[in-house]
Amino acid sequence: MNRALRRPDAVLVQAVIAGALSFAHLHDLAAAAGQSGWKAWAYPISVDLLLVAAWRRLRIGRDGASWTWFAIALAASLGANIATAGLLDLDHVPAWLRILVAGWPALAFLGGTLLVHTPAPAAAPEDTSQEHEPAAPEVELHRTDTAPVPAPAPAPAELAPAPAKPPTPVPTVPAALVDHARSIADAHRKTTGEPITADALTARLGLPAPTCQAIAAQLELT
Length: 222
Prior knowledge:
The protein is mainly alpha-helical and 222 residues long.
């Protein structure tokens, strides 16, 4: 275990070197933009802290605010490293860059506050009902003897046939009522071009069902 701790990690060494170079570039750009003394050293810390805070928030939940502040901090760090590569005259820094450097503390404070105090997006709850449900115990059955042969069931007694139901009496329908129903059926045929059904005639007449069935039988309706 001690040998593992003593062995240098190439990735860690590379990260320290890259961080030191980026820190120095941010310091040089802040000093060239008029931020002298301890203020020039505070700018790299502010940029890197915002970048780390946005990255930690992205690991918790990928929301739009985290991506926005991560892109802003990455653009500030990457822009400072590119600006000190000879593309910008640090002895004559343009006014717009001085404005950006001077306004960075307020922007970084706003981003850090929003990242810390905005609640993280809630993760979807996992369905663990099946995991905690106890499994039914397995029971093994062993036969120790041969089951006796069941005795034959007695033959069922012959049932006497049920008495036939008396025929339902057909109600007598007056001729006038039959003529009225026929006129309704004719009017329906003229209107729709199709014969009226027994159910539709029953609904139009509003009479008891046996009476309507007798009328439909006389009119030969289905």
